[in-house]
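Lab meeting minutes (informal)
Scribe: AK
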Amino acid sequence: MMKLPPKPAALNTVIASAPPVYRPQRSAPVISPKIVPVQLKPVFAPAVIIRHTPKPYTVMQPKMLSGQPKFYPNLNPAAALNVDPAEFMHLEGSFDQSYFRMRRGGDHGALVPNTKFIFVRTVEGDVVMHQRYRHPVLAQGKPVLYAGEAYFNNGRLDWWSNGSGNYRPDADHAEQARLPMERFFTYEDVLRGKNKHEEAIKPHRKL
């Protein structure tokens, strides 16, 4: 019989392990944060209120526009007593205001003022006077254009002032009284007697 060739000896082969397969890892998506605009509120400094004490015998009022009259309110409503207006005097002056007369209520006869009177100039433009009645009575409690006192000497105006504790008009608007400004004295001047001193050096205009 024919002999078969011997089988080759088993070879000790070392099979190298294959390298690991590279599998890329999935990276987590990067989410950028949303930017929300924030509007800042403006910061204002606190208002500073400056308080001051008004001068005596004056009333602080808002300034009026140029050409507009200033009205003075009655500061003492309880003093506005109910009196018949027929007892009030209404002042009338000459063209140059060198001589004055007055009429009582609706009387037609004219009288000559010859003493000190309390007066108001109403919003209608009338100068209402009386020797005893206070300013709120003459104005019937209403606002006025001006108020004060006036002293007459046989129809001539010696002096007048802004003396009124119930209306307290300021001297800056004395022209609203429509009386001669050269005869005007502030209430403080009258208290000092300056009106009597000036009267000696301010002769009346001749008629």
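Next up, CB showed the second protein from the same session:
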Amino acid sequence: MRFSTTISLLLVAGVAQAQFGGFPGQGTQFGGGGAGAAGAGAGSAKQSGQTGKQDAATGTQKGQGLTLDPKNVQTGSQSSGLDKDAEAGQAASDTDNANFINFCTGKTITNGLQVRAGSCNGIPMGDIPSATQMVSAVFTNPQNNQVIAPNTAIKFSVQIANLQAGTFTNPDNTYYSAPQALTGGKVVGHTHITVQDLGGSANPTKPLDAQTFAFFKGINDAGNGNGLLSADLADGLPEGFYRVCSMTSSSNHQPVLMPVAQRGAQDDCVRFQVTAGGGNNNKGGKGGQAAANGQNQQAAQGQAAQGNTGQQQAQQAQQAQQAQQAQQAQQAQQGGGRGGGGGGGRGAGRGRSVFQRRRSFAERTINH
């Protein structure tokens, strides 16, 4: 066999081995390639698994994992509260070793919806502010017991402290779906205005039906930027007695949570009347106050006038008394002159006689 033929056969065999069998330790495109592909697949799967673990770890760090991080376990939930310093009449707390993470199992979950039949919400309560930044509200309009004309526009205004107002999520599908959050230590959220008819009396004794209201408005803006939030009722209200209240909430509409139990209320309510002859809008209370001030001013002026009149009368009486005393003194002086002697009396008589004599002399002179 020629040398060139031998080289050609060796080359053909080598190519065949490379294509089908493969050299030891090498994958091929077909037979050995399957093993190579499997190895590559295993490597990819391993890499994907590592990536998944990394993603899971990242999710856990972001609070998005499906397992409870042991660092977040609150041992306070493991105590009924009756084992330490409990007072008589206090109830035992429910307990759970895993923060009640599965509390809603088997129940209708809220899932961002307003479920009128009731539901269970498993979302954490969230961030809670410090005691120095608790939410507090007061109505500036209407004022308590203010009288407003029927069917006239009303601007409801409430001043709220320690609320980062202006955050209002979609209540149709994010209701209670996220925890309360803080910005700069203040609760992030908004407030609502709700008006109810008191039923013909300013002081009802029966609790009102919470499902019934005359006006309701969620305020989703930041107001004037300094805590003053307002809602307008253009058509006003019919005659009656009403109560208006604020309902302050975090972004996802849950009532705001505070750090301590002993505190002032977070919301405010005032009562007002709508009747014919009442002041319009936010001038009613001021008008009533102005009227009261006017009455007070009139009363003060009347008292001052009476005082001046009395003083004048006293002065007049004093002047009359002084005049009377002067007249009496003059009369006494005149009487003393006449009684000082007969000559005095005669002198007075002669004086008048001299005048008469002079007059007679003149008359005589003319006649002659």
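CB comment: The radius of gyration is 52 Å.
No objections, moving on.
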